[in-house]
Write a structure and sequence with these properties.
By secondary structure, this protein is mainly α. It has a single domain, classed as Arc Repressor Mutant, subunit A (Orthogonal Bundle), CATH 1.10.10. It contains four helices and four strands, in the order ββαααββα. α1 packs across α3. It is 56% helix and 11% strand.
C-alpha cells in the first residue's frame, strides 16, 4: 500500500486519507501486530500513530479491558460497509 495520498498536515499531525484510516482500522481489527502495520504503511510509524489517534478521536477505535486496540461498534459498522462495497465492486468487475 502506498501512502502518497496522505499529505494533509495540521499541527504536526498527518491527517491520513480515508483509505489509509480504513485499512488501519481493518488491520487492527484483524489482530495484525504493530510492526506489521508499520511495514504495511511503507514503514511510516508516524502515519500509523496519527491514524490510530484519528480513529480514537472519531470513536471507531477503542481499547478493550486488556488495553488492546479494537474496532468500536461504530468502527465495525464502517468496516462492514467498506467490505460490502468492496464485494459489490468486485462483482461488477
Amino acid at each position: 500500500m502506498t501512502t502518497s495520498n496522505v499529505e494533509i498536515k495540521a499541527d504536526n499531525m498527518q491527517i491520513p486519507s480515508s483509505m489509509t484510516v480504513m485499512y488501519v482500522l481493518k488491520w487492527i481489527n484483524e489482530g495484525i501486530d504493530r510492526k506489521r502495520l508499520i511495514q504495511n504503511l511503507d514503514n511510516n510509524e508516524h502515519l500509523l500513530s496519527d491514524s490510530i489517534e484519528y480513529l480514537k478521536h472519531i470513536h471507531w477505535l477503542e481499547e478493550d479491558s486488556n488495553g488492546n486496540l479494537v474496532a468500536s461498534e461504530d468502527g465495525m459498522l464502517w468496516i462492514n460497509r467498506y467490505d460490502k462495497m468492496s464485494r459489490l465492486h468486485e462483482k461488477k468487475n
